[in-house]
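pinning this so it doesn't scroll away 📌
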Amino acid sequence: MSGRVRPITLVGTPVLHQPCRTVENFDAALAELADDMFASMYAAEGVGLAANQIGSSFPGALLRER
């Protein structure tokens, strides 16, 4: 799997309370973020992850089927 594991933010972190930005294009930076989100979610043995949980203002989330 590609992507780097990013730290997951804790409850109360300001980024969790900020509005997400609008996505205009799915570009290389957004694809890299998606890879990082998958890597971070799997490393934490989680079943879902929102982009703002790893410090991004992207309005996206991932869910894993178990």
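📌 and the second one:
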Amino acid sequence: MKKFIAAIPDLMIIAGGAAVAFGAGLLHPAAGFIAGGVMSIAFGVLAAKAKTPAVE
């Protein structure tokens, strides 16, 4: 249960990105793919930074 609670922020980021991409896709189909791609790249960068130990 503690692992699920710890994963809630990541799940909310993914759900929020999906909602924004879906909304953009309702306005224009290509905008949905662009927004989804940008958010996937941003989430990948954040995930990579979280796994990399800080260098002092």
